[in-house]
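Box 3.1. Reading complex inputs
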Amino acid sequence: MDLSWTEEDEAFRAEVRKYLEANAPKDLPEDESANFEARRQWQKKLAEDGWVAIHWPEEFGGRGASLLQTVIYNEEYTRARAPLLVNSLGVGLLGPTLMVHGNDEQKQRYLKKVLSAEEIWCQGFSEPNAGSDLAAIQTRAELDGDEYVLNGQKIWTSYGKYADWMFALVRTDPSAPKHQGISYLLVDMHSPGVEARPLKEITGDSLFAEVFFSDVRVPKENLVGEQNDGWRIAMTTLGFERGAGGLAQSVRLRNSVLDLIGDAQKVRRNGWTAFDDPLSRNKIGKWLVEIEVYRYTTLRAISALVHGGSPGPEASINKIFWSEWHKSFTEDAMDILGPVGRVTTDESGKIDSQRWVREYLFARAGTIYAGTSEIQRNIIAERVLGLPKEPRGDTKTEKAGDR
Amino acid sequence: MMDFRLNEDQIQLQKAAADFLSKESTKEVVFAAFDGENGDSPELYKKMADLGWLALAVPEDQGGLGMGLVEQAVLLEQLGYHAAPGAFFTNACISIPALLALGANDEASAVLDGGKKVAFVIDPEFVIDGHLADSFLVTVNGRVRLLGGADVNVKPLETIDGTRRAASVEFSEQAGEDLGDVHAVESVVDAATAILCAEMVGGMQKSLDMVLDYVKVRTQFGRPIGSFQSIKHRLADMLLKTEASRSAAYYAAWANQSSAEDAALSASVAKAYVSDAAPWVTGQCIQLHGGIGFTWEHEAHLYFKRATMNAALLGDVAFHRERALALTTQTR
């Protein structure tokens, strides 16, 4: 056991930190579209300087960085509070999937523009009737000559209204068992028959969209891998969702606790500042303690990955940890900040309470997206602890593949 | 090099300790100590001393095996798993390193070979293992003093955990020998706190293992109860808290061994987290066994009681949350 970073690690960290300090934009526009455009410019700049997707191989525009370097990069990126990557789904999910399962033409055609954010990607997996039971997707793709014809609906599509492309799971063989009739298709979002309708979330924002397909024609060469092999490819994609982001996530969430410590000192309640109140201090101490523990567990997971293990179903433990943490932390933050923390008027006062309301509400999504806490607990119980499966209602299921 | 895994030697130690304790710290031994006069098992203590375990983390030139806190965490996790009774933790992890830190090497070597026991007094009203001690380390006005048994009036205290008892002590502030400034032992207490967390992790793991075995074979409504989602989800949460506790305990052991910048913080983080999680996990072991888990003869309560005892030792949840917060805001 040795948790120290090497000199090379530290030198790399210093290099990343220096670059971000000099270049990362501060104070992005509030307006959603303007904000999006500013982040697109930022990613373009990162790509030009070779600082996006450093874990990608050099031939595709990355640096071929090691896992540990990627972890350090992500940690520093978050520490610098640099803007969220605008094409994160392309960089994090589609790109790595194409590198494994795509053909040479597809790699040449798509990967560079993923990095430069010239083409924004969205993920077309979930449907109204396929959430936790992802393999139940119904969007149909029928081959007609050299084109697939798409009909159906996707939902919870992040960046749906901005995306130029979607990587989608579609049903190409409705008669096969549900995991075996699925294909992985790249869909041009500007095609006739594609309609993206923004969803309004409980935060008031519209981060997600519903996407409707009516007779959308997709060239056959946009199929990734073999027809009806899409489920296996999708599992690759989902594997990347778990990669090297854990440590950065712990930094991001710890930043929130530090922000709460700052704001609690500005809010007076019951005759003293919220920060001096012993009950509030106990709560803040709890969340600080737990996010440190989360950092240690992510270091342990990274160590397992670096030394050849796989995060495997244990990744579900980390997903539950941070998402449940975030929900409970923001509940306590609202308690601690009191009435002032509930004000959503702009420039209302000493603290940015709008931010706390948004974070409090957005935290409710964390325990739902990328596999609900309930599904994660099933995965842990069945695949880590080896407990028997529950009897199921869908007899077509031939293997465990649910998220 | 970022490597959280145990190395070969540490895995060997883990196996050796598990083998030894499964033979020597059996259910019968633990229950005999629990129901006995003073909660101790002198035979077990002697055998562990003979194996050199009291001296595991003591440098070789001071008569020890020259290993570190991570190895001590490995060992104590196994002691926790087997609910080993007696004063091993307090002597190996607090008194010996404290005596060495204060330069009382002769006194330390008397404890090292298992012949003598020393209690470390933080609160005179509740001195863990004080009823088994021959001598006492006490703090008076920022100075540590070593008192012999004759200098101290010891009143044994029974506790919720029959295998981990205590005493209240009275002594004159002038009694005994001055050993030095209390600052010399501060890092000892942080290190011991980390190791105590490892012991608690052992009890959590044992509780989880017992439940896991049980829910796979216990059948109700024609199904193993482990196939019901309410049970599965509870077990998933038990695993989460056990593994997170393990990460915290070992991180803290490593950080203190390496005198890392966050050594003190990591000890408080681990103790605050594990003291919260351990009573919950071990309590679920009682719940998920149903009525049988509430009986005296089942081992479940041994682990619940040990976790409850340990949660209050060397600073409780509230103390360490506050300390973690203070350490964080000071260094910002």
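In summary: The first strand of chain A starts at residue 121 and ends at 124.
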